[in-house]
Every structure is written in C-alpha cells, then in structure tokens.
Amino acid sequence: MTQASVLQRFIDSLKIRPAPPRVGPEPGLYHYEYLEKEWPTRFHLRIDPDGQGLLLANAAQAAVLSASGVLMVQGILEGREDHEIFLDVGKTFPDVTGDEIWTGIAEVQALIADLGTPGDNYPISNLDDPYAATRSRMLSAPLRADVVPSEPEQTRQILQQLWEAGIPQATILVRPDTVIQIVPRIVESAEDLGMITGLRTLAHWLPADVLDEAANAGLDHLTLVYISPIAGQHDELTAAGDHDLTLGHFVRCHEVELCPVAQVPLFRNNIDGLDALIANLGERGVSNISFFALACPDDDEAARQAGALPGSTLPQVATTINEAAENAEVRYLWEPPVRFDTTKSLRDHIIAGPRAAGDVAIRVDSDGTVYPARGPRTAAGNLLQDTWEQIWSSPCFTRYRERLAAPTRCADCPDLPICAADCPRNPRGWSDDTTGGDD
User: Fold this and answer.
1) Considering Cα of 352, then 180, then 289, then 380, what sign does the dihedral take?
2) For residue 436, is pLDDT > 90?
3) H or E stretch including 291?
4) Which of 60, 161, 304, 325 is the most buried if burial means most Cβ atoms within 10 Å?
C-alpha cells in the first residue's frame, strides 16, 4: 500500500457522518506495553465514539480497527486467553459466526506481532485496515499535537487535556525563548501519562546535557532542522556550528536509543542538492526525514526572490525526493507547505518550521490555543477553556475536514504522496500564517 492510498484512507475517515450505535468497550485512550518475543512495544489503543478504533505501535504505525477488532485487540493486549476473547466477541456481536471470530483473532494476533517488530520508531505515518474496518467512521481526534511549551504546570495541564481527548503523541517545540531547563520535566509529564514524546528544535538550542536528561525522562524521538550536508550552507541559516552539533546530536540519539529525525525545509537554494542531502542522512543512520516546502503563488515575485518555491514546482520537487528516498532506503513524510510571508526572512521561516507536522497533527500554542495544520491561522478553541468536543466540532475544524475530504488527485501526478491531502500547487491547502483571522 502506498503512502498516498494510506493517507487517503485517513482522509476518508475524517468525513463527518452520523455515528452508528456503539457497542463494546468505552471510548478513550488505552496504553499497553506488550512483549512480542524479546522486544517490548508500546501500544496505544484509541477507541472512538462509534466503537471502532486505532491501534498504534510505538506511535510509528497504526491500524484501523472495526468494533469487533477493537475488542479482540484489547483482550490480547490485556493477556486474556483466546477462548475468553472468543466468548466476549460472540456475546457482543451475535451476528458474527464462530469461524469468523477465530479467523479474526488469528489475524489480530498476526497484526500485533507485525506492528511489534522493532525498527520503526517515528511518529505516525501509515494507517492500514487489518480487520473489517469500514470508512464510515467518526474519528474523535487527531493522532499528534505539536505543543509550544510554557511553564511546566500549565504545559502538563495541556498534555493532560490532549491525552483525555485521545491524542497519544506530543512533540514539544523547543524555541529560542524556551527555558531549556524545564524541557526534561515536560517530557517526564508526557511520559507519565503514557504519551509518545518528541522534541523539535535546532541543535544549538538543545545542550547535550539537556538532551541526555530528556532521554532519561522518557523522550522517544528528536527532530532537528537539517538544511544541507554542506556545513556553511546550513550554518548560514541557523547559527555558527549548528551543523556539527546536529550531526553530534544524531550520533547521541543512537547511543541513548532515541529515534533521530531530520526536518528539511525546501527552498530555492537547497533543492538542487536533495539527492546528496538524503543520501548523506541515510549513511549516518538517520532513516526518518520530514520535508516542508516554503511556497508561494507563481506570481509572487518578491517571495520567489527571497527563496520561496512557486507552487507549480512542488510536484517535481516531490518526485525528486521520492526517487532519492527510495535509492537511499530512508523513510520520509510530507508536512503541509508553508506559505512564504515576505515580511519575514527565509531564516525566520526555517527556524519557525511548519505549524504542525502533517495532517494527523494539530498545533497547540503555549496558552492552550489549538490550530489545524493547514489553512489560515484560525483558532479552533482553547484546551484550557473549552471541551475537546467543542474544539473538534468548531467551524475551523469542520472546514478543515471538508477541505481534506475534497478530491485532489489529477492526471498530471496521480501517485505522488504529497498530493494525498491537498494539491501542493494550490495555496488554499498550505499552512498560511500571513493572513490570520477567519477565512
């Protein structure tokens, strides 16, 4: 299954439909540690209001589950005997035959064993359909939140609200104004809840001792901005010495069993060297790369001169990345293109990064305000003031889901993963912080 078809399946699931009568376990987020042979795996089972659910392994892979599949997964992860699971499923779903139940239990056991295979440790990128799941689902929340931290107690409250909403992973956005000493405490708060936790930052903002403290507190992955394998080109847009620090942090990630992730901004002066960039990362053991384009409409000459990529060029850039990633045998993700703001510098955009890392993610600012990954910077609500139901059903998220559900495929580039959520040439599908306000 391609990344494009996988993401389309997720997009289909975002369409709002009446929920069927719920049967089975109570909705919510359940955290398990499960030993498959000698390898422990962290599983999150999210049960949505319609009874169907998602099973996430190390927040790296996810499987869409039918309501009966949810019951089977929960029984297996809780260590119950097969015959007990069989009886529970038969009692809850009387229309399912005994042979179907036994077949389903075997398939779910195989699924858990497959998801528990070590080697994939990067935040969610794929959604498969292992057992009779339908597309008519009422998804209750995204899968990831990118969080701007404030003081530890308020950030802990935000993480608590995310967990209660059913969001199993959080990436803390470490910025120049972040009090760096509090980062390990925030990581510890997320880990205490059972969340998969990451940091996104520039290397020179994260001292090596703080990285080690965060790893000891339970950090799972570290995302570092990586512009170029040429140190001078990278440092010119970050800080002197940042390139060497980035490579050093990647090495340290392997030593302390963190997953290293390179986040690569795409702009005019680095797209010609993407093959070398991707190959260089692969050779250094950085096998997870995310890309975000700094984009502008084709007629925005000022933005082009500042380094932005015209929207019409993005499919070709995506094709180059797809081929280079396959050759280097690395895994890559597309984050929504960022509309270039000519009132800000190229460096400002690179340092800020995308609003949220992908279409299964949301942005949460330090005061609790929530934003979708794409479109204008329109608030959907506030985690410290509103219920999650109010936020998720807000006009902002309703428009967002409708936009994602609209067909975006065309004959020009039918199989590009970047096209799965929205056409990269269309500014309406970009993350746009230039306008603000309601659209």
Assistant:
1) negative
2) no
3) strand 288-296
4) 60
